[in-house]
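step=encode ok
step=design start
structure_in=
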């Protein structure tokens, strides 16, 4: 057995279905870069505070402005990538993120690191991340037959939750010993290893059909949104995802204020309340495929999507002490479990409903909208938290989340056969 085949076999054994050598390398690359990202979780704000003496406004700008600029830059990249082979694009995005991140330890060693550089690097990484995710979805659709997409997405989901569990503690230990710049180096190396893994997938990727016009037209930038909004299934799923993710993330800073300031929880208790429930994501992702096999994709999508919306409102009831800690841990466990089931089913539905020559533009539009809505709602809830108090603002977000199941698709008709989704030849 060749080394690549052995890797695919080892990665596939645990979940009971082999998806081949090429997916094995892609999965390994995904896991490596995800682990690097979580190792460096919070590194940029720490560098800004500890090295550059940045204040709260600058730290907030580092998160919001960098993501917003990256999303804006990614908009024209979607149509551009659509008509190119995806594997070279994936490798290029990994190498771009690696190179951008390595400028930070380089500048730090020379004593010339600035806040502007952190801002620029965060924008570059955000743009490359959106483009990578969009191209990765298109590549996966050509790599595997339709019946294996849910298995693949479930494995990506389980890997994401695994790295969420182990990455931040390891990164925190490394930061304590070596400083936050060391975790940035680890993140950069993870992207280099990811690029090597994607290169090892090999095979012959068919070149997409050339478009009629050689130049990028202004209308091309909106193609992803047009495609989503004209599909009866993608449209409600799109709005549901953007609103749900935005409201959940908007409440996180206020929850930190409530727990760490108003209720007096220690930082380790705050971290534990969110790290420990991540194991529920592993359980949920493992159950996604059996549930779809038994109950059907639409029913699982709607039920899991509705159930994940009922948990966050409970955070407004949190009090001090052990009872409050158990409450937030239980709420996060239920929320993450439902998301672990919903996310791979939603990702599979999205790929199945999108034509092969529209995947990159559609996924780019999806990611840009999600990031933009999250940034906007986070800013709005920051103002509400100041006016109403963090507990009331958290409760308001939870109440609004209860309405998000109304945006879930009423039905998911079977997708039409896609001639662009032929497997890559090895």
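sequence_out=
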């Amino acid at each position: 057995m060749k080394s690549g085949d052995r890797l695919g076999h080892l990665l596939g054994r645990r979940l009971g279905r082999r998806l081949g050598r090429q997916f094995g390398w892609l999965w390994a690359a995904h896991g490596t870069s995800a682990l690097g990202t979580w190792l460096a979780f919070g590194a940029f704000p720490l560098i800004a505070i500890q090295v550059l003496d940045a204040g709260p406004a600058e730290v907030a700008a580092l998160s919001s402005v960098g993501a917003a600029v990256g999303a804006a830059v990614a908009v024209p990249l979607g149509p551009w990538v659509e008509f190119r082979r995806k594997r070279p694009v994936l490798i290029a995005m990994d190498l771009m993120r690696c190179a951008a991140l390595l400028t930070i330890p380089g500048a730090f060693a020379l004593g010339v690191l600035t806040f502007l550089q952190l801002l620029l690097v965060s924008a570059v990484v955000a743009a490359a991340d959106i483009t990578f995710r969009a191209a990765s979805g298109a590549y996966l659709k050509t790599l595997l037959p339709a019946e294996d997409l849910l298995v693949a997405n479930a494995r990506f989901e389980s890997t994401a939750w695994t790295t969420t569990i182990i990455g931040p503690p390891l990164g925190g230990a490394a930061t304590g010993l070596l400083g936050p710049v060391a975790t940035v180096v680890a993140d950069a190396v993870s992207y280099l290893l990811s690029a090597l893994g994607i290169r090892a997938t090999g095979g012959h990727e068919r070149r997409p059909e050339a478009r009629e016009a050689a130049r990028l037209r202004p209308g091309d930038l909106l193609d992803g949104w047009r495609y989503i909004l004209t599909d009866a299934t993608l449209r409600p799923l799109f709005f549901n995802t953007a609103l749900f993710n935005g409201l959940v993330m908007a409440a996180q800073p206020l929850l930190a204020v409530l727990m760490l300031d108003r209720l007096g929880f220690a930082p380790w208790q705050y971290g534990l309340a969110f790290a420990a429930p991540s194991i529920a994501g592993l359980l949920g992702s493992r159950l996604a495929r059996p549930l779809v096999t038994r109950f059907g994709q639409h029913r699982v999508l709607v039920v899991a999507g509705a159930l994940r919306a009922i948990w966050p409102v409970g955070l407004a009831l949190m009090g001090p002490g052990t009872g409050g800690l158990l409450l937030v841990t239980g709420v996060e466990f239920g929320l993450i479990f439902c998301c672990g089931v919903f996310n791979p089913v939603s990702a599979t539905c999205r790929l199945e409903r999108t034509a092969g020559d529209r995947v990159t533009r559609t996924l780019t539009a999806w990611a840009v909208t999600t990031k933009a809505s999250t940034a906007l709602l986070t800013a709005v809830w920051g103002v509400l938290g100041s006016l109403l108090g963090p507990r009331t603002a958290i409760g308001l977000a939870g109440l609004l989340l209860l309405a998000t199941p109304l945006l879930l698709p009423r039905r998911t008709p079977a997708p039409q056969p896609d001639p662009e989704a032929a497997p890559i030849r090895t």
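step=design ok
step=annotate ok -> The chain has two domains: 14-207, 222-414.
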